[in-house]
Amino acid sequence: MKKGKGKQRRAFIKNSAYSILASLVGMEIVFANKMPVGYEPIIFQEKESLKSLGKEASLTVLNDKPWNVETPVHLLDDQVTPASKMFIRNNGLLPDRIKLEDWTLTLQGESVKSTKTYSMSDIKDKFRHYSYHLVLECGGNGRGEFYPPTEGNQWGVGAVSCAKWTGIRLKDLLQDVGINNDAVYIGYHGLDSHLSGDPNKEAISRGIPLWKALQEETLLAFALNDEELPLAHGFPLRLVAGGFPASASGKWLKALSVRNKVHDGSKMESPSYRIPISPIEPGSSVDEDNMRIIESMPVRSIITYPKSGAQLPFGRKLNIRGHAWAGEEAVKQVEYSIDFGSTWQLCNLEKPINRLAWQHFSATIEFPIKGYYEVWVKAIDMKGVSQPMVVPAWNPKGYLNNACHRIAVKLT
Ligand SMILES: Nc1nc2c(c(=O)[nH]1)N[C@H]1C(S)=C(S)[C@@H](COP(=O)(O)O)O[C@H]1N2
Ligand SMILES: [Mo]
Oxidoreductase molybdopterin-binding domain location, by residue (predicted)? Predict the structure, then answer.
């Protein structure tokens, strides 16, 4: 008898513990009765780690070794992306948080006048500080829609941010160190380690052509949204090259190489961050000769309000809003359609706060009758280049899918 009661009691405790777990997870845990006692569902481990990375628990973890975290598109509604909502794309393992007094940046390479090392106070005290709002978009943003699927993180459309970056201009530092006439490329080197643990391998070491390095908006940033740069985004110093695939914006900098040729660091080789020059058959491989390095990102827009699936009473007007950007270009126009692309109306479009920042758009939509609708949005850049309505040309690594963003809306 006693034994039986004890068992029942344990079962009751277990059941109530499960129902607490279920309410924390937000839904029923289907095989809860098979879960070992005391087991912590991994979703909590992810949430804890997200917190320690300074991120909101509502971000989507695509991978935790290395960390790849996506922002659900409706969480990108802020005009300036808060650090807590910025996507993370790491290729290697996060470095330890370094002490500023132990940190230096070395300027090296065959085209530097002479190798020189800077401390953080050299950087902060010697050069003027600038702030720009800059779009960082992963080259693989939108990859999840390519067919046949390509390897890599299956990003939705939320591998993008536009935050306020503060630092010094890379061109001022290059002027201070002195570069030779044959310099054509700047490569970065970070403190993160290769997934294999091999200290002789770099997780990623990409960079930018000299013309991009000399732009006013190309920064070596030590602050994000007026606060110290978070570890996840490159503390203590990162390169920020807005408009280029974000892989060019090296985090956790320890060195920059001034090169007399295109930088040949890790992930500069084909097919990484390259796309075919002439069209290819989906699923096929491409000769290196037919590949080019991605520079300016293509035109794109996202609807950040409302969330897809929104339901509203018939008769109510809907105010939509979002952001549009176009790599090195500005956005000329944003249009929306509620009839599957048959007709398009203009959205209100703001000017960017500075070059290479995203532009905010909005529109007020009236729906003719009750029912299911889709709102499609399409941006057009200053050169007249428009977003495609369907997934653009397939490429081996699934880059640059800038198809129109669409949301579902129900009028009831
Ligand atoms: N050192 C270093 N820099 C890096 C990376 C990295 O793995 N290591 N990832 C790059 C890639 S592919 C992207 S998309 C951006 C992501 O920047 P974020 O994590 O700050 O959003 O950082 C880039 N800079
Ligand atoms: Mo990326």
Answer: 95-265
